[in-house]
Amino acid sequence: MKVVFDEQAFPFVITFEGTPHVEEIAQWYNNNSNFIDRVLYDKGAILIKGTNVDTVSKFEQLTGSIAGKFRDYVDGNYPRRNLQGHVYISTEYDQKFDITLHNELSYSEKWPSRLFFGCIISPGEGGETPLADSRKIYNRMNADLLEEFERKQVRYVRNLHNGEGMGPSWQQTFYTEDLKEVERHCNAMSIDYKWKKDGAIKLTHVRPATRIHPLTGEKVWFNQVDQYHPSHFRKELYEVLLLMADGVEEDLPLYASFGDGTKIPDSTIKEVIDTIDKEVILRPWEKADIVVVENMLVAHGRKAYKGDRQIVVSMAS
Length: 317
Hints:
The chain has helices at residues 22-31, 33-43, 56-66, 134-140, 143-152, 170-174, 179-188, 225-228, 235-244, 266-277, and strands at residues 3-6, 12-16, 45-49, 70-71, 82-84, 87-89, 99-102, 114-121, 125-126, 131-133, 154-160, 192-195, 201-207, 210-212, 219-221, 254-258, 290-294, 298-302, 305-306, 310-316. By secondary structure, the protein is of the alpha+beta class.
């Protein structure tokens, strides 16, 4: 089996010639795991082409053969449908809109170390998964803005309804109907919670805006402040949600402030997004492509698209 590398590209590209079967790909990957690790810690992401991994079952088989332990999507900020075993649909967010770049579950106490994306149905138009090196984002960020975020941190707020309302319910978010199970999770993850009279719950926690990768020792921009910030909502939706929240922004489904509770200006969030966008690399998806991402080192998003699209993901911990 011939394997071709493109070391200059981002992500690093590995191309298999001859369209090997899942078992052959897994064997090569495992035999070269030290090489894969070095590339991921250097580049942050790998694109694998020339595979026959074009179904959910094959993707589950491959990822199950090359990664040990998988993480579920409990406590995700958007519901994500499980397709099979440890395989989830990457997102079901409205296809007319972009999803800004983020590191998966960076607002949490624990996050997956690696993400495996697979292209089962390539997008008709658009639909790329933009990638950006979180180390370069950190180094590009305005020094004063960076200092403020590192000093104050980020306070995340979620208001999850009890089955009726805008945004996800707590049952969808925690994949349970058991209040005690939710409370156990919150306690384990250092999340403050408050049950409301209507059965909804308010979740609050403060997290760092940057982190240090435990193996490379490099500083990375690692948060989801823009996705929680009120400016993330489209104008019409924001007005509806704010009306439902009686004019209190902190009662929106998602909200973010600085860790000390002070408001983050819209202009600051715009600067954050603009800075990240300067590091974005786009590559079109092709059927059976696989992308492996070192979650702390590379942020990902999704571009708007037309037509069909099925990108799946597994999260390794």
